[in-house]
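## Example record

The block below lists the input lines for one assembly entry, exactly as stored, with component labels intact.
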Amino acid sequence: MKVLIVGGGGREHALAWKLSQSKSVTKLFIAPGNPGTAMHGENIPIAAEEIDELKAFALREKIDFTVVGPELPLTLGITDAFTAEGLLVFGPSKAAAELEGSKAFSKELMLRHNIPTAFYKKFEHAAEARAYIETHKPPMVVKADGLAAGKGVVICQSAQEALEAVDLIMTEKAFGSAGKKIIIEEFLVGEEASFLAITDGKTVLPLAPAQDHKAIFDGDRGPNTGGMGAYSPAPVLTPELQKEVMEKVMLPAVSGMEKEGRPYKGILYAGLMMTKTGPKVLEFNCRFGDPETQPILMRLGTDLLEALLAAAKGNLDEVSLEWKTEAAVCVVMAAKGYPGDYLKGSEIRGLDKAALLPDTVVFHAGTASRDGKVVTSGGRVLGVTALGVDIKAAIENAYKAAALIEWEGAQYRTDIGKKALR
Ligand code: AMP
Ligand code: GLY
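Predicted structure tokens for the full assembly:
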């Protein structure tokens, strides 16, 4: 079977690594991919949002199955475009991807189907948002409605900060049209967890839970990023809580989307806050998490292709997933300056040494090839991921590998996975 993966980050390297192990895959393409995905298939220089070009490529190469990594092509309608040509795709339709594409839509859906989430208000005019802030007690959370690569969310400890966030998003348009609408949300307290499931629109098959680390610095300090590391399993999601999340969040979301004429197929990712009164949804994403996918797929024992194919074809009820008992930890190594402006083009050394370590995979994210060398080309550069008999051992293994890798200004958190040890 000829398979195309769309995207070029750490998540897509993890998908390429896992899918290349499937016996049914005869040829793997990744568009645009990165030097890491090139170890498992052929990179094609088409960007993830160039849907017409991707479609032409898939038709020309007679691609049997396409797996879409990032949210942008999904919200732009890649699944609809491919399906219209008879191409089989894994990922939700444009209408279903609104669940991530618009926070206002996602909040309204949760309200309509009694899915627990933070109290919120939606605003289309800055003046109304300002008036609301003046009359409500901080802390509060200001969010751009549309896609902003995980950066359109501002946690505000004071009214002043909230007013500045409204200016940044609505007046200065820091996230472009993503900030035409905003929502202002109640601040939730608790530990976060990522709950991902594969669904064909009826059956919802949970993946092993994971935990991300959104903030740039140790101790969850500093601005939010796309994610600085992740681990799986996530002990905070006990088996009882996982059951509760399935019943109160995942199943109602999938059946709610079906009832509203937007059948949801693909990965449904719920970002959760585990509050004193139970799990509440911070956001839905319409795709695999990055970096959660890296540790999750390291632990998956089952052939991933079979599961994704079954979801796309609508027979996911015939699939079950097996998980390794080992834990996995992913430490993201980022470029100097990230999540702000960052340096590009630094030569990365030590990848060959890290590659020799057992049960360790260094997933590439923002890397490029130059004169036979691997250089940095993005904010999040590598996801150093390792298995271990337990979280503690996996942490040690991942940091052992990270210590072998260096470039000028490389930065990473030193406390990934620590929360799970408590
Ligand atoms: P989101 O993209 O909506 O998941 O928000 C990004 C991050 O901001 C989350 O992972 C949380 O760390 C934080 N966050 C978002 N909403 C809230 C909230 N209502 N209360 C506390 N933290 C939040
Ligand atoms: N790691 C957060 C995300 O994928 O949205």
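The chain has four domains: 2-91, 125-180, 191-318, 327-421. The CA atoms of residues 198 and 267 lie 5 Å apart.
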